[in-house]
Structure prediction request, 187 residues.
Amino acid sequence: MTEAQFELLFRKYFTVLSNVAYSVVKDRDEARDITQQVFIKFWDKRDDVNIQDNIKSYLHRAVINTSLNFIEKNKKIQLEEDIQTVFKEELYTSNKPEFEEGEVQNAIEKAIKNLPEKCQLVFSLSRYEGMTNKEIAEYLEVSLKAVEKHISRALRELREKLKPYMNLFAFFIFFKVGGELVYLLLQ
Prediction:
């Protein structure tokens, strides 16, 4: 596909696809961003994508999937914000914490660093970078099952190593990564 063909495609479908994204995400700016992301990804993969029949259907499906991923990611962010609020309230109302914040932070960092290298990488991409298992598998060029296995192992080992701290945070362990509060669900 040439640049001119791509530009024609962009002009022809951008508004329609933005409206599709808006019908899912209910935010005009986000809908435009999502549509732009789809076109950028399409351009980046133009040599790999083989669309024989209907390019409009392909782009339509890509916009819907990207919109649904956006909603899912926002739900996760909202959950983290809600949990952070509850955590802060609990922290300020608690008179005497069982453990110091730094002690918990150190225990978490140590537990993560003690994971096998590949397991640590997969866990970090999942929890800190927000990548899906499928994205991680593609990025690392491994199977989806391998990614799931590494995440399961990481969570199992972290639960085991962080047991003493579970009462402090009920079912969640919170820690900061790059200034951002992150939580680890301990099931």
